[in-house]
């Protein structure tokens, strides 16, 4: 313990010394911080290898030079289970189609797609320079064609980015494994990338964690196996191995935890229940019951009874007709379904719900409506809209974040580490809902010009947009302006000068004069006629007209001001 204590004290002393060295400086850049820590010996990267064990050294799955999935479920079994279970097939198809909607560059603010943005977006005021915008657009075009096209190559000769993303989504949901090959040019840059059949890719038997970085890039880390034969070998620079549900289990061999693997028992039960119901049409009996005539009767008489029975009850014209017989005793044995069929239906519904829960999807998305008896399915209700939103947050968003992380770490950051690939439009509001929200905000704390800037519109002329569309704010601004005039002070902006309240500057007689004052009347008429009117489709035109109304109304109002304690109270009489 004495040696450990000495090491702790020495480390603490070095940290204190580095902190004291930087303390007098008010603003320390990250580079200066790192240089100071390096000088103190605290920021040097270490080349020491971890001491822990990360793979089972006695695994029987490593006999061929590659690692196998440590599960009884092989790749072929996972593929068959995903296709035979209709619920899982529907879930996978829905997610594939949803991701495919984002596999093109975003065209508008409200469209779904992807875009390349700055990786560090903490500074809201910083925007891309023209050079960065050109480079980001070039990367987006490169992704759209899964690489740079050769001079004589056409986009149709290779997979599009939409096809690439659909393949990736299906592999992730079935195998929890997504692999693609990175093809490089002579300079070592990524020239193109192509999705690989993930079920054929295996990690090579190599001690990743205890191998030097320089040696690792020259080593074989993954192989392609088909029929127990190695077909291709890949280094870390040539292949991308992406797992959505990683595990730290020593026996996992770097494989993820597939959704289907988590549902092994549920899928087996679902298949048994589905097969039980299917067997009814091939091996079951479709009759409603059996008519048993008790006692021994001659065969000739039984055949005559059968002919009479069929003539009385068969055919549409004899529907629901009650036959009348003369016999000692008859017995009816019903063969129709009982209430246990309802238990079977509830069991299948329960399995469907559990399957959707593991995949993080609401049953409504695959057209399973569970509700009150007799309730019709309606995907436009508020409850279902909320359920769909929560379903995307639980299932679709993690899936898309995993795919974007994989593209960033293996493609984008190799091209430019300052950029980042993101999916856009998942949380985008509709145009009308965003406008409604901005109109609500412009009446509380946003200026009209600020809202117009959000909508990429020019500011209103003559400073008319420097106003909050709220009557209380207008009264407050009027009182502040009157107080500033008495003190001989004036200011530009919404309370004076060039702002919309600036026309109220002057003495009190000019501001709140007689209603018959011709200058006031001329001013209000000219104001309404001369100033540029907003566009007819502008959502704020109606609100701005109310601002002009309040301005003219306040010009003719009587203002009384009194001081109560340390507060100034203003009373405005607008004449009813």
Number of helices: 18
Percent helix: 40-55%
Biggest sheet: strands, sense, closure? 3 strands, antiparallel
Sheet/helix structural class: alpha+beta
Distance between the termini: 87 Å
How many domains in all?
4
Strand content: 5-15%
Taken in chain order, the helices and strands follow as HHHHEHHEEEHEEEHHEHEHHEHHHHHHEE
How many beta-strand segments?
Answer: 12
Shape: extended
Can you tell me the residue ranges where pLDDT is under 50 for at least 5 consecutive residues? 372-381, 489-536
Q: Report Rg.
A: 38 Å
Mean pLDDT: 76
Strand order of the largest sheet: 3-2-7
Structure notes:
The chain is α+β, with helices and mostly antiparallel strands. It folds into four domains: 2-39; 62-264, no CATH class; 289-311 and 324-334, no CATH class; 432-573, no CATH class. 43% of the residues lie in helices and 12% in strands. It is built from 18 helices and twelve strands. The protein has helices spanning 2-22, 30-39, 75-84, 86-100, 130-144, 161-175, 213-216, 259-262, 264-282, 299-313, 340-359, 382-415, 431-442, 448-454, 471-486, 508-511, 518-530, 541-555; strands at residues 113-118, 178-184, 190-195, 201-203, 222-226, 229-234, 239-242, 289-293, 330-334, 419-424, 558-564, 567-573. Strands 3-2-7 form a three-stranded antiparallel β-sheet. Strand 2 (178-184) and strand 3 form a beta hairpin. Helix 4 packs antiparallel against helix 6 (161-175) and helix 9 (264-282) packs antiparallel against helix 11. The relative contact order is 0.08. Mean pLDDT is 76; it is low at 372-381 and 489-536.
């Amino acid at each position: 313990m004495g040696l450990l204590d000495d090491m702790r004290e020495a480390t603490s002393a070095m940290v204190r010394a580095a902190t004291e060295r930087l303390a007098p400086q008010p603003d320390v850049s990250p580079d200066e911080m790192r240089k100071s820590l390096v000088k103190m010996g605290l920021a040097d990267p270490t080349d020491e290898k971890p001491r822990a064990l990360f793979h089972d050294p006695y695994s029987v799955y490593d006999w061929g030079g590659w690692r196998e999935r440590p599960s009884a479920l092989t790749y072929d079994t996972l593929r068959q289970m995903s296709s035979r279970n209709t619920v899982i097939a529907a879930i996978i198809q829905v997610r594939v189609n949803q991701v495919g909607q984002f596999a093109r560059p975003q065209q508008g603010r409200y469209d779904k797609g992807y875009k390349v943005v700055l990786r560090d977006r903490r500074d809201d005021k910083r925007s891309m320079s023209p050079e960065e915008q050109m480079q980001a657009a070039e990367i987006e075009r490169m992704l759209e064609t899964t690489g740079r096209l050769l001079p004589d190559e056409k986009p149709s000769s290779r997979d599009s980015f939409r096809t690439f993303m659909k393949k990736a989504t299906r592999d992730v949901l079935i195998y929890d494994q997504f692999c693609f090959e990175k093809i490089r040019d002579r300079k070592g840059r990524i020239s193109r990338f192509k999705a690989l059949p993930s079920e054929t890719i295996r990690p090579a038997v190599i001690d990743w964690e205890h191998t030097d970085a320089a040696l690792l890039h020259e080593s074989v880390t993954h192989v392609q196996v088909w029929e127990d034969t190695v077909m291709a070998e890949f280094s870390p620079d040539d292949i991308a191995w992406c797992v959505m549900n990683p595990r730290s289990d020593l026996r996992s061999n770097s494989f993820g935890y597939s959704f289907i693997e988590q549902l092994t028992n549920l899928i087996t039960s679902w298949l048994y229940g589905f097969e039980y119901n299917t067997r009814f049409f091939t091996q079951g009996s479709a009759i409603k019951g059996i008519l048993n005539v008790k006692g021994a009767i001659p065969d000739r008489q039984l055949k005559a009874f059968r002919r009479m029975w069929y003539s009385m009850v068969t055919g549409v014209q004899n529907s629901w007709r009650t036959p009348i017989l003369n016999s000692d005793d008859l017995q009816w044995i019903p063969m129709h379904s009982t209430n246990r069929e309802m238990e079977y239906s509830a069991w299948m519904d329960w399995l469907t719900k559990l399957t959707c829960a593991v995949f993080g999807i609401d049953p409504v998305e695959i057209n399973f409506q569970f509700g009150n008896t007799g309730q019709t399915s309606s995907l436009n209700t508020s409850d279902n809209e909320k359920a769909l939103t929560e379903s995307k947050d639980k299932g679709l968003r993690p899936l898309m974040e995993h795919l974007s992380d994989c593209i960033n770490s293996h493609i984008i950051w190799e091209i430019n580490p300052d950029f980042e690939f993101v999916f856009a439009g998942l949380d985008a509001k509709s145009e009308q809902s965003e406008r409604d929200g901005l109109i609500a905000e412009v009446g509380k704390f946003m200026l009209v010009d600020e809202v117009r800037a959000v909508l990429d519109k020019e500011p209103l002329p003559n400073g008319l947009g420097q106003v909050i569309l709220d009557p209380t704010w207008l009264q407050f601004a009027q009182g502040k302006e009157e107080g500033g005039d008495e003190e001989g002070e004036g200011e530009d902006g919404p309370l004076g000068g060039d702002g919309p309240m600036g026309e109220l500057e002057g003495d009190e007689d000019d501001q709140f004069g007689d209603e018959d004052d011709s200058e006031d009347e001329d001013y209000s008429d000219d104001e309404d006629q001369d100033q540029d009117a907003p566009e007819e489709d502008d959502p704020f035109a109606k609100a701005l007209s109310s601002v002009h109304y309040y301005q003219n109304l306040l010009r003719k109002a009587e203002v009384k001001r009194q001081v109560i304690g340390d507060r100034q109270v203003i009373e405005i009489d607008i004449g009813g």
